[in-house]
Design goal:
Oligomer: single chain
Distance between the termini: 20 Å
Strand order of the largest sheet: 17-12-14-13-19-20-18-21
Shape: globular
Bound molecules: flavin-adenine dinucleotide
CATH class of the largest domain: Alpha Beta
Structural class: alpha+beta
Strand content: 15-25%
Number of strands: 21
Helix content: 25-40%
């Protein structure tokens, strides 16, 4: 992706000009990056951007898979240096943070007191601000809802200079959470954490031979467990399509934890730097790269599936909260294994009754067009009342795809077809994972009224449309054909 930096206005310091990327390294855009340390600096930057005619995208850790935190040719407000913990009540489990505090910062601070974030995504690197703006979910979504459902107070600074203190009683609360960072800058939030008696979870793992069993087992497991996730072999065909491995987990009660101080100690949670005490994990992505082509992935998936059917089948064990929740952080820079074109993710949310039919068709079409997903994960969800919600009473399927010049056209074509399939089934999409949706599809799943309500609030809080990311422009302000 390229863009021309506007030359007619006074340029900000040139050393701020950087190439900003998405998590998957498949999209990049030049942008002037500012890193405020407090609210006063945020105000100054908002005013300067306005004065010089630049648009501004907000950015946390840049862990969104698509273009949510990119702003081609404009300014980027990187909020990672606003990362103070402002208040902590270890009796109530209430934590007030600035937006640049990461999930890792949070659990490191609170775990020894017996508190864990109620909702976490599959990596601990995102910031609290990024999690709020995308309203992230975890492996317990059907039960615990989203990140936003555990926020008791939120402060938002709008481009007009107004500060809004929001609670769930305010209508705008449900718009800002999941609001893609275009309504205002979240400058602080208070989270209600979850009490835990142990730093370990009890985990059960088992293999499932096809999609039908994967979905049925996932649904059944939610009755007995607090977290459930399925890895799916997206390259398996025929009767094995949708085979995979489930991991279900529950917290360990105080009565079953003889050493709470040991397991709740952040040092116990540390992920090791090496595999088997020998191979440095930092170099593993280079090895993975050798298998990053269709036959290689088929081979690795088959090996993983058969391992999960044999040695890994029906295993119950204890695993630390960090190791279970943030599996993807185990291999640093794993996304680089996808090569220079990087990757995109496509996550669809489909009502329970249609999920098997739609997921089967999605897997079948991506296989038959020669663009199978290299990593596929299924989770269980419940609907919520956030304005730009991605959730349904059903399942999500998240698919990682390599971006290769010779296959890009086929990939985009098949994803556009799948968009229609998902829409027809009453499904939804998730902007944190999206790089391809068009405005019409976004409007169709969100509903024209909801989109209008959102844009009306945006017009009131940001009348000059200062806050814009490439994602926002793509789905809410598409360029009309000339
Ligand atoms: C390996 C991996 C696994 C993941 N697993 C999951 C998962 O299981 N579930 C899930 O829901 N997501 C998941 N994600 C997606 C990730 O959690 C979200 O994209 C999250 O928003 C990233 O946070 P960030 O700090 O990196 O924000 P960025 O990606 O930098 O920005 C995300 C959005 O937040 C906005 N924003 C940032 N800060 C502020 C602020 N202070 N005020 C207002 N808006 C702001 C930005 O403008 C942007 O729109 C995963 C991502 C990765 C890389």
């Amino acid at each position: 992706m390229t863009a021309t930096v506007r030359a007619s206005t006074p340029a900000p310091a040139w050393d701020r000009l950087r190439t900003v990327e998405n998590f998957g390294h498949s999209l990049r855009a030049p942008g002037f990056v500012f890193q405020p340390v407090n609210e006063a600096q945020v105000r100054q930057i908002l005013a300067q951007a306005q004065k010089h005619g630049y648009r501004l995208a907000l950015r946390g850790s840049g862990r969104s898979y698509g273009d949510a935190a990119l702003a081609a040719g404009h300014w980027v407000l990187d909020l990672r240096r606003m990362n103070r913990i402002l208040a902590w009540d270890p009796q109530q489990g209430r934590l007030t943070v600035e937006p640049g505090v990461t999930i890792e910062d949070i659990w490191r601070y609170t775990l020894a007191d017996g508190w864990w974030p109620a909702v976490v995504p599959g990596t601990m690197r995102p910031t609290a601000g990024g999690c709020a703006a995308m309203n992230v979910h975890g492996k317990n979504n059907w039960q615990a809802g989203t990140w936003g459902e555990h926020i008791v107070h939120l402060r938002v600074l709008t481009p007009t200079g107004q500060t809004h203190d929001l609670t769930p009683a305010d209508d705008a609360f449900w718009a800002v959470l999941g609001g893609l960072g275009v309504l205002g800058v979240i400058t602080q939030m208070t989270l209600q954490l979850k009490p835990v008696a142990s730093g370990d979870l009890e985990v059960r793992a088992w293999a499932t031979p096809n999609l039908s069993r994967t979905l049925a087992d996932l649904d059944a497991a939610k009755e007995d467990y607090e977290y459930v996730v399925a890895w799916v072999d997206a390259t398996a065909r025929g009767r094995a399509r949708g085979r995979g491995q489930l991991h279900a987990a529950r917290h360990i009660p105080a009565s079953a934890e003889p050493f709470p101080h040991r397991t709740l100690d952040p040092a116990y949670q540390m992920l090791p730097d090496t595999f088997f005490g020998l191979v440095p994990k930092a170099i593993l992505w280079r090895f993975m790269r050798l298998f990053m082509h269709n036959p290689g992935v088929r081979l690795v998936n088959a090996a993983k599936y058969w391992a999960s059917r044999t040695v890994g089948h029906e295993k119950t064990y204890r695993q630390s909260l960090v190791a279970f929740n943030f599996l993807l952080d185990y291999v640093p820079h794993w996304e680089r294994a996808y090569g220079p074109g990087g990757l995109i993710q496509y996550q669809i949310f489909v009502p329970a009754e249609a999920a098997e039919r739609v997921f089967d068709e999605v897997l079948r079409r991506t296989q038959s067009r020669g663009v199978p997903s290299y990593l596929a994960v299924i989770k269980r969800h419940r609907p919520d009342r956030f304005w730009l919600s991605h959730a349904v009473d059903g399942f999500s399927l998240a698919l990682d795809f390599p971006v290769r010049p010779r296959r890009t056209a086929a990939l985009l074509e098949v994803l556009a077809e799948l968009d229609r399939l998902v829409l027809d089934a009453g499904g939804r999409f998730y902007f944190a994972k999206d790089a391809t949706l068009d405005a019409a599809t976004a409007r169709a799943f969100l509903g024209a009224d909801t989109v209008q309500r959102f844009l009306d609030l945006k017009a009131a809080w940001d009348p000059d449309d200062l806050l814009q990311s490439d994602l926002y422009r793509r789905v809410f302000r598409p360029r009309r054909p000339a």
